[in-house]
Amino acid sequence: MSAASLTLATLAKDLRLEWRSKDAINAMLFFALLVVVIFSFSFDPTAEESRHIAGGLVWVAFLFAAVVALNQTWARELRNQVLDAYRVSPAPANALFLAKVLGNFVFVSVLEALMTPLFVVFYNLRALGPAYQLPIVAALGTWALVVNGTFFAAMSLRTRSREIMLPLLLFPISIPALVAMVEATNSILTGEYSARFWVVLLAAYDVLFTMASLFLFETVLHAE
Amino acid sequence: MKRAFPVLAIVTAVLLSWGLYQALVVAPTEQTMGDVQRIFYYHVPSAWTAFVLFFVNLIASIIYLASRNAKADALAVAAAEVGVVFCTVVLVTGPIWARPVWGIWWTWDLRLTLTLVLWLIYVSYLMLRRFSTSGQTPLIAAVLAVFGALDVPLVYFSIWFFRTQHPQPVIGGGGSIDPRMLHALLINWLAFSCFATLVCWSRYRLEILRREIDETQALEALLEGGVSGGRR
Amino acid sequence: MNAYLYSAYAATWIIHIFYLGVLARRYARLRKEIEELKRK
Known about the structure:
The structure holds 3 protein chains of 3 kinds. By secondary structure, chain A is mostly helical. Chain A has one domain. Helix content of chain A is 83%, strand content 0%. Chain A contains 9 helices and no strands. In chain A, helix 7 (133-155) runs antiparallel to helix 8. By secondary structure, chain B is mostly helical. Chain B has one domain (37-210). Chain B is 81% helix and 0% strand. In chain B, helix 2 (40-67) packs across helix 5, helix 3 (70-102) runs antiparallel to helix 4 and helix 4 (110-131) runs antiparallel to helix 5 (137-165). Chain B is globular, with a radius of gyration of 22 Å. Chain B starts with a helix and ends with a helix. By secondary structure, chain C is mainly alpha-helical. In chain C, 95% of the residues lie in helices and 0% in strands. Chain C has one helix spanning 2-39. Chain C is rod-shaped. In chain C, 12% of the residues are buried. The interface between A and B is medium-sized, with 35 and 30 residues.
């Protein structure tokens, strides 16, 4: 089985399992909704002000929702000793990693798609800049969170307080990506600046850390 | 090798004292900021030392990844811990300097923010080492160190551009520097570098000792278990 | 004005001495373990 078909097969399996049980997605959805509502109570600006801070609010909410998704990434594999099987088999571990990242990307993107209308409603948002750039920023930003998140979730498998370890490791390293996501979103919503620098930075971040993760995943897998 | 430590300790003490004298007495008083500016002679060398220590951690981590040399890993831990200590000094002296001069405790300027993010990354590295229950903690930590190092240029650029778009006061200022001030700065940097070497070396020896004892204790437990098992 | 200067220098040394204290305590604990191992 080639690496690509292994990746796709694993991804399809994960998505199918998730669709049937809807375990994680229900919890994530409700959590995301709660976050949006709590933020609305905590920050209640007028429409003009909200455009300047909406980027930050939205991405912090997405970040928390993503952490919920990421924490359960390897849970099924741990339960069923799948990781041990990968360690002894000749199958490329990267195929498994990529499948996990893609799966998380799908989950978090679905979450974002569902949360965005809520934010638009609660904050009366309207993009003054080029709105078509928003999905690009969202995709690049989500990939940045998900690729490192999946990798760090694997690194945290053998740690005490695994669920808190993941955000502790993920947040500092994600800071440049977060700044880029927030600034890009703000500049598109306010229309005051071009988001180009931030989009390029996000793309560079994604490329760099995807390569680093693919290069070092096998090492981490065998270290567990 | 053993003799070098006390010699270096004496040299460090001398340099630190001389540096203090230079910073507080010899260096001229700054025109706009006054005597408070002398914090500069401790703030900046601490930052440079912290960055060097983090770089040592990176090199040691890469060596460990390539060769699984346990001594490289011990050096990585030592460098990271001492680096965090120096980084803390930077983050504490920065606001103390900023408050009387600019009226604000903190500003998200490039240097301070970069230092804060570095501090966060390396504290997370130390937390991973402390919380990990895997037998291969050094390996996972080394991978994290590489990720952290890869992140640094990205952090720099993101904050730099952010500041270009949203300008604010810069702590520490720029521009030309009086040669006597440069002199005091460099002496303090040398002094703190020697001090950092001493502390890092101590931490390294502590780590090596800790591991030797752990191995001995494990061996003891093994032998004892074998003896009592045999008797049955 | 000078209060800030001295507190910055003091803070620096307090932080360093604190860490050296942490190291000293760990050394003491290790030395105790070595004694116990030697006795066995």
